[in-house]
Amino acid sequence: MNTHNTNYKWKFSNPLKTNWFLKLPNEIIQLIFSQFFNRLELPNNTQFLRLLLTCQHWNSIATEMYTQFKLDRVKKLPKVGDFQYLKRYKRSLQSIQILGGQSLHMGYINIIVDIVQINQLTHLNLFSNKMNDYCIIRLIQSLQYQSSLRFLGLSDTGLTSHTGPYFSDLFKCNKSLREVVLSHNNLGEIGAVAMSKGLEMNDSLQILNLSYNDIGDIGAREIGRSLQLNKSIQELDLRSNCISPNGSSFLSEFIELNQSIHAIDLWGNSIGKDGASDIGKALASNSSIRSINLTRNSIQSAGIKFITAALVSKNCNLKSIDLSSNSLCSDGAKDLSEALFRNQSIQSITLSSNKIDHVGIKALCKALRHNQSVTYLNLAFNEISTLGSRYLRKLLKRNTSLRCLDLSSNQLGAESVPVIESIQLDQSPLESLILSHNSINITSIQSIYHHFNVTSQTTPIANLKQLRLEFLSPTNQDKEKAASLKLLNRIHNNLVIKLF
């Protein structure tokens, strides 16, 4: 096919003109087509048309094989007249993804609706394509009794509070949807309240993302109430929704009573220490919760006590917790450390941007030398300096569980060298050590390379696969010196060392 010729007429023809190809068995041609068209991304209108101009076998074979359609951040959408040719494949299409930056008017929506109603489509994602209320309502209504769709993505599409009642009907009637993503819209309090009425009657939805919708405390209350006794919901994302301690109090009732929920994300709200108290009590009583994100919630050291109390509860089975950007300081780190002596379920802890200094690091390292469950620890963007490095060295010498340690953007500098040298390469389970943006100079990096060059000759590297030492703002002089010393990104016995 001539991929440079744009002077063509719309018709199903044979631009290949290769007789040997046309004589192949249909099964072989179908296999060739499947390798080329499966998951094909169509970057512009011209290639959209060329997709349909393959050969005379297209009508008999490809229409049964073309299952996935994707337009990713195209400069211009296909014209509606061209787009409608997608309907030829509505009995085979299983996934439609139109991602990024375009406005979809009713002409496009009607074509999508026509395809949806065949009950073959399982995945529909219209991320960041603005639509007016009429278009959205038309689409949502067409999905009420659709029986094949599993995923619906309408992030950043311009949803308003007016669409809330229609989502309520969708959740009430549709039994096939498993994941719905409605983030970065304007549902607001009114839209969330209206939507919640349908959620109360839904028994099939597993993942709901309402992040960045400004649902507020009242919206959080109604969403929480509607899901209290729901037996299907597993993940709820309410990031950045203006939820205060009052709203978190209502959510804690949902967390306490619901026995299907596994993960809840409250990133970027304002629950404070009072909200942390309510959430902590709920976590202590619900053994189904596995993951919670409380980043940027102004919990502070006064509120972390309630979370750590939950971690030592016999009913708590939490595996992952993110407490980033909560001003926990070293007092909060010490409270968490005490809980880690007793908790043996937590596997992932993120404490970035919490103003933790050597005092907090000392407590954490002491606890982690005894704790056998934590495999991921993120301490990026704290205040770990020379004093803190000595405790890290002791931890890494005796570490028996940590797989990934992130110490990026601290104040370790040249102290990064002894931290790295303390790793027992032939015994440590550590797979990834991140020391990026720690003011490590070329001389220190040269010492690190020398350490691995010498050590690896006598000691096998058991598990370490990644060592990241990126400069914060590398100068041309840094790069030239690194190159002259042959300190470029390289591999030592399957270990990747990254500098720039």
UniProtKB/TrEMBL annotation:
Pfam family, one: F-box-like
Keywords: Repeat
Domain F-box: 22-63
InterPro entries attached to this UniProt entry: F-box_dom (IPR001810), Leu-rich_rpt (IPR001611), LRR-containing_regulator (IPR052201), LRR_dom_sf (IPR032675)
Keyword Repeat: yes
Protein name per UniProt: Leucine-rich repeat-containing protein (LRR)
